[in-house]
């Protein structure tokens, strides 16, 4: 009976890559990928590798997290590299790998994140922005971040996310909020769309699936202020003056 392989003991190299692809990688990241025997990553990231990168390319399955230990164990005797979008430690695969293997078994070469690129384009200080990810999460989780005057950067799940964000803003009384969709940041196809309000957001807009949404929160006049903690004030309900507490 063959013994099961353990997870790799050598460091797994995690390389952040942007929309600019191979050309945007520093020499150290290129050398590491050229030296790898197997490269794990999403199909979009793997397609950015040039032909001279001869490693076996293994796309992540879905769901990803349960499959990680098995995939790493299956290639434990090979030099493993992992491709990730932008900074792997910022809403990326880096967190999963360090939790599975431990920080000492993972070596990360980060790339500027989409948030860094977006703030650079918008002129927003990174420390003044709240980031919300909707990748694999319901759009409703954005509601807790809505406060008048707040700047948000929302990581989109796909091309439909900006429209869903606009609908939620209108529903929550933040229709005057200004939105801007930034696509393919850092790449040759980069596009920074014109700003518009959630109230006037085009119903059938079709941005690139690789996008991030900038929101400047503006509450509509007369909109009830709701707290971030559970529970609603009496004014949030239609009633005749008598409420059961």
SSE layout and pairings?
Blueprint (H helix, E strand, L loop, with lengths): L11 E6 L9 H9 L2 E4 L1 H4 L9 E4 L8 H7 L5 E6 L7 H9 L4 E4 L4 H9 L7 E4 L17 E5 L5 H11 L6 E6 L7 E2 L3 E2 L13 E6 L29
Parallel strand pairs: 1-4, 1-5, 2-3, 2-4, 6-7
Antiparallel strand pairs: 7-11, 8-9, 8-10, 8-11
Shape: elongated
Using the CA coordinates, give the radius of gyration: 22 Å
Helix and strand content put the structural class at alpha/beta
What is the CATH homologous superfamily assignment of the largest domain? Tetrapyrrole methylase, C-terminal domain
Average pLDDT over all residues: 89
Query: Which CATH class of the largest domain is shown?
Result: Alpha Beta
Q: How many helical elements? A: 6
CATH architecture annotation name of the largest domain: 2-Layer Sandwich
What multimeric state do the chains show? single chain
Regions with little confidence, pLDDT below 50 for 5+ residues: 1-9
Describe the largest sheet.
Answer: 6 strands, mixed
In total, how many domains does the architecture comprise?
Answer: 2
Q: State the helicity in percent bands.
A: 10-25%
- The ordered string of helix (H) and strand (E) elements is EHEHEHEHEHEEHEEEE
